Model the fold of this input.
Amino acid sequence: MSVTDEPFTILQLIGAPGGPSRLAESVLLIIDAQREYVDGKLALPGITESLAAGGRLLARARALGVPVVHVLHRGAGPIFNPQTPAYQPAEPLLPQSGEAVVEKTQANAFAGTGLQEVLAATGRKNLIVIGYMTHNCISSTVRAATERGFRSTVVAAASGTRALPDGRGGVLSAELLHAASLIGLSDTQAVIVQAAEDIPD
Done:
């Protein structure tokens, strides 16, 4: 394939497997599915639909006995404050008894946490990743996971982000930033699927 052909990812170039990991062979990693993104200062567009998509995937994971790991961001200021409802997990992605909960303070969920050990204890190297925000904590964590030998599949419909200033006096929409962040990950870091139903059992 040459530069004159259709665009391609580096993962395609090196012949990496292109399909999503099977749910039954993976860990479901839920990043920052918290009320801050529902009714807090960082409320995201489309959050109700996104959480519902994640909930369908979580229900399937539980039915298959798949390990589920919930990551919660603990803030020290006006957002994700553990003294407020904004810190709490958002329905329907609430942790159940026996599911690991990892608290983080950085975008990268491996930084300063026990996530590496929690994942290692499952004996699995495939991650199905959902959560928020795509351009920040999802991207940082997936990149760190790749460095640690994990293979990530990110579900677009069960993740999301918000609009940001574009640095030129305008705004980059949440939809475009979400898509661009996932496309960036698809080059070298992760398999991207659009719907929760695109993850095979």
